[in-house]
Amino acid sequence: MQKDYDKIILTKNGLKKLQEELEHLKNVERQEVAQMLKEARAHGDLSENAEFEFAKERQAQLESRIKELEKMISEAEIYSDEEVDDNVVAPGRKVVLKNLDNGHILEVEVVGFGETDSSTLKVSISSPVGKALFKKKVGETVEVEAPAGKFRFEIVKVNKN
């Protein structure tokens, strides 16, 4: 059985961002790449045409990203904040943590796949911290295995956004 944090879990906001990116790629960037290919073809010999090679590479990257986004959107589980108890860690919630090793207080926002932002302490549900916190309750202690070492946190507070 697949664990919850192994799935592509998105918040409604995360889904919206992926859908917007997909639409932009399909409706804007595809046309730009098609124009690049058309212009490069007009320069003649394609065998030594760097512009044509660049445009073909860009087209391949673009189509790969479109397929990736379509797959993520079709397989994603949208996490609804209303379905979870207020004191439980879930995507879209801010969590106040107390580091049990040094007493420091830290506030992170748990977000869905691809919504991370280290500058605002948004941690993905698929990250070591996100996995450790997911579905835990206020008062529970969690251990996090991270590249920087092992950390122990107590969940002090969970806030809905």
Can you characterise this structure?
- The two termini are 30 Å apart.
- The chain has a 5-stranded mixed sheet with strand order 5-4-3-7-6. A two-stranded parallel sheet has the order 1-2.
- Helix 1 (12-41) runs antiparallel to helix 2 (50-75).
- The longest helix has 30 residues, at 12-41.
- With 161 residues, it is of the alpha/beta class.
- The protein is 39% helix and 24% strand.
- It has 2 domains: 4-78, Transcription elongation factor, GreA/GreB, N-terminal domain (Helix Hairpins, Orthogonal Bundle), CATH 1.10.287.180; 81-160, Transcription elongation factor, GreA/GreB, C-terminal domain (Chitinase A, domain 3, Roll).
- It is built from 3 helices and 7 strands; from the N terminus they run βααββββαββ.
Features:
161 residues; alpha/beta; Helix Hairpins; Chitinase A, domain 3; 5-stranded mixed sheet; two-stranded parallel ribbon; 7 strands; disordered N terminus
What Rg is obtained from the alpha carbons, in whole angstroms?
A: 21 Å
Measured as a percent range, the helix fraction is 25-40%
The SSE string, one letter per element, is EHHEEEEHEE
In spatial order, strands of the major sheet run 5-4-3-7-6
Strand content: 15-25%
Count of separate structural domains? 2
Going by CATH, the homologous superfamily of the largest domain would be Transcription elongation factor, GreA/GreB, C-terminal domain
Give the beta-strand count: 7
The CATH C-level name of the largest domain is: Alpha Beta
Amino- and carboxy-terminal Cα gap: 30 Å
Largest sheet descriptor: 5 strands, mixed
What count of helical segments does DSSP give?
Answer: 3
Shape: elongated
Task: Briefly note the structural class of the backbone.
Answer: alpha/beta
